[in-house]
Amino acid sequence: MKRVAVLASGFGSNLEAILEAQSRAEIQGKVVLVISDRRDAKALERAEKRGIKNLFIDPRNYDDRENYDLALAEILKSEEVDLVVLAGFMRLLTPYFIKSFPLKIINIHPSLLPSFPGTDGIEQAYAHGVKVSGCTVHFVDEGLDSGPIILQESVPLIQEESIETLKQRIQALEHRLYPIAIDLFCREKLQVNGRRCYIVE
Ligand code: GAR
């Protein structure tokens, strides 16, 4: 069984969806650790409620991003984590950290990458007036939301809908897609060749 760590800065609805899927045995992996860079992250509470080890690692205790990431990497290695899942983790990871876990870090982003990377993906797409948006699960490389795409699904925008309903629809999609991607990883069904991620039998 693969050992999974989830890094989350905020509300943790994706974490919740992952834990729900795990409890329904839809993920052949186990979330063993949740880490946040914010003390008040609801994600930590959600982990605590389910008896999952959870840590607040305070960025203010470290001189710079490198040292923060060094500490993160040490914890993840000591927990023998096989997969690092970013679920609304709002810090840019350093190249050192990414190199420490090659093709073992995945992220979910609320747009159809490579469109609208970075923060506020939903807002950016909405402001641009797109007709279709969606979400993307991808491996993390050293660029901004630029690694090989694992799964991606679209939602058409409804004319004159508010950004709130669009957010709800994209997040519902995220909650369905992320557990599927994590399960594929845990069952070793993902093979990456260059930019392309294949799902193998
Ligand atoms: C999610 O919508 C995720 O796609 C986004 O943060 C939200 C976290 O929600 N991530 C990014 O924008 C990363 N660039 P959650 O805390 O409820 O899971």
What key phrases describe this protein's structure?
35% helix, globular, binds glycinamide ribonucleotide, alpha/beta, Rossmann fold, 201 residues
Write a concise synopsis of the structure shown:
By secondary structure, the protein is α/β, with parallel strands linked by helices.
Note down, in words, how this protein is organized.
With 201 residues, the chain is α/β, with parallel strands linked by helices. It contains 6 helices and 9 strands. It has one domain (2-199): 3-Layer(aba) Sandwich (Rossmann fold). The protein has helices at 13-23, 42-49, 65-78, 95-100, 121-128, 163-186; strands at residues 2-7, 29-36, 54-56, 83-86, 105-109, 132-139, 149-156, 190-193, 196-199. A 7-stranded mixed beta sheet has the order 3-2-1-4-5-6-7. It starts with a strand and ends with a strand. Glycinamide ribonucleotide is lined by residues 8, 10-14, 87-88, 108-110, 119, 121, 171, 174.
- Taken in chain order, the helices and strands follow as EHEHEHEHEHEEHEE
Mean pLDDT: 98
Q: Which spans of ≥5 residues are poorly predicted at pLDDT below 50?
A: none
Main sheet: strands, sense, barrel: 7 strands, mixed
Find the CATH topology: Rossmann fold
Strand order, biggest sheet?
3-2-1-4-5-6-7
The residue fraction in helices comes out at: 25-40%
Number of domains: 1
Give the amount of beta strand, in percent.
15-25%
